[in-house]
Specification:
Blueprint lengths: L11 E3 L11 E5 L10 E3 L4 E3 L11 E6 L5 E4 L2 H10 L8 E2 L2 E7 L6 H9 L6 E7 L6 H7 L6 E4 L5 H11 L4 E4 L4 E5 L2 H5 L5 E7 L4 E4 L4 H4 L9 E4 L14 H10 L7 E8 L4 H6 L4 H15 L1 H24 L1
Parallel strand pairs: 8-9, 8-11, 9-10, 13-16
Antiparallel strand pairs: 1-10, 2-5, 2-7, 3-4, 5-6, 11-15, 12-16, 13-14, 13-15
Helix pairs in contact: 7-9, 9-10
Protein name: Glycosyltransferase
Keywords: Transferase
GO molecular function, one term: hexosyltransferase activity
Length: about 325
């Protein structure tokens, strides 16, 4: 899906897609025939043609190709894209893949923090990022901030939704990248190391920093870790083919439910060199601090449903330990 269908209450939409500009993943391959090389480009300043295969664009008869969903080359990238990629890969001869990375920002009345989040994404040096912003119909200056940067946003829409996970589902339906990350209003993307993603074969987690705690932490996305904790969603880069829509039957812990589904597809944890800066502890993060029996019971049910009886038993024992410690604390008080 490239655009969301019109809905009542929509306040606007825009971005590069609405102007006919779409992004792809790219792979480098050797041109076997002259006809496979990119076409010539026009110098808009001199109105003359120049060869797109000159040294500043390609070398050693290598060209960048648009890939299909299986990462197989289908046709040469346009000359202007060839030039942009080769500028990025200068002195980095080992780079032969540039996967499209989708970053989704969900926001509602976030004018205080949104601009900082947008700048952290669009100022990355990696040249192949697809940026999507889903606004829940904000009534403050959020939309004005989005419009200020829509020249660097692939698609944005402002319309009512059913909550944060409904908005994130809209983003999932719209994305076309190989990798997906949710960087919501108030979060900052510090470093996007695409080489780490190229070497990953499954959804992975990364390092992140929390401003409020001045803490650098490595998250784990394993079944064992999920029996007693939840990684911040900002620290997870999902492989697109492993990501599913969030289950709206879990209005508070749908991100945890999503992670248990994804984690069940891979036993091996993967860490990357990404660095995420979480400027604000948002809705999802605050929920991880909820140790009420109701919340623990809901989490345990999800573990049993998606990860099986063994991990459910571990999660239950963890919940009972929390409950027992709380009882002892109340007795001492």
């Amino acid at each position: 899906m490239l655009f969301l269908p019109g809905t009542e209450g929509r306040k606007g939409e825009g971005g590069l897609r609405t102007e006919g500009y779409f992004k792809h993943s790219y792979v480098k391959r050797e041109c076997e025939r002259e006809s496979e090389r990119p076409n010539t480009v026009t110098d808009t300043n001199t109105n003359t043609n120049t060869n797109a295969n000159t040294s500043h664009l390609t070398s050693n008869n290598n060209s960048w190709y648009i890939t299909d969903s299986d990462n197989k080359p289908i046709k040469p990238a346009p000359p202007e894209i060839q030039q942009k990629i080769n500028q990025y890969t200068t002195n980095q001869s080992t780079i032969n893949q540039l996967p499209l990375i989708s970053i989704i920002t969900v926001v509602f009345n976030g004018e205080e923090y949104l601009e900082e989040t947008i700048l952290s994404v669009i100022n990355q040096t990696y040249p192949n990022v697809e940026y999507i912003i889903i606004d829940g119909g904000s009534t403050d200056g959020t939309v004005d901030i989005i419009k200020k940067y829509e020249h660097a946003i692939d698609y944005w829409v402002s319309e009512p939704d059913k909550g944060i996970y409904d908005a994130m589902n809209k983003g999932i339906k719209l994305l076309t990248g190989e990798w997906v990350n949710f960087m919501n209003a108030g979060d900052k993307l510090l470093y996007l190391d695409h080489l780490s993603l190229v070497n990953c074969k499954t959804t992975n987690t990364c390092y992140y920093v929390k401003e409020t705690e001045k803490l650098k932490k490595k998250e784990s996305l394993t079944k064992l870790y999920l029996t007693h904790n939840t990684p911040c969603h900002q620290s997870v880069f999902y492989l697109r083919k492993e990501l599913e829509l969030y289950d709206l039957n879990y209005p508070i812990i749908a991100d945890f439910e999503q992670m248990t589904r994804v984690c069940s597809k891979s036993f091996k944890p993967v860490y990357t060199k990404h660095l995420i800066f979480s400027a604000e502890a948002g809705f999802s993060y605050e929920n991880t601090k909820d140790k009420s029996w109701k919340n623990l019971k809901a989490r345990n049910y999800i573990v049993k449903k998606n990860m099986g009886l063994f991990y459910f038993t571990l999660a239950l024992l963890h919940s009972l330990r929390i409950k027992f410690k709380k009882i002892l604390s109340n007795l001492w008080d």
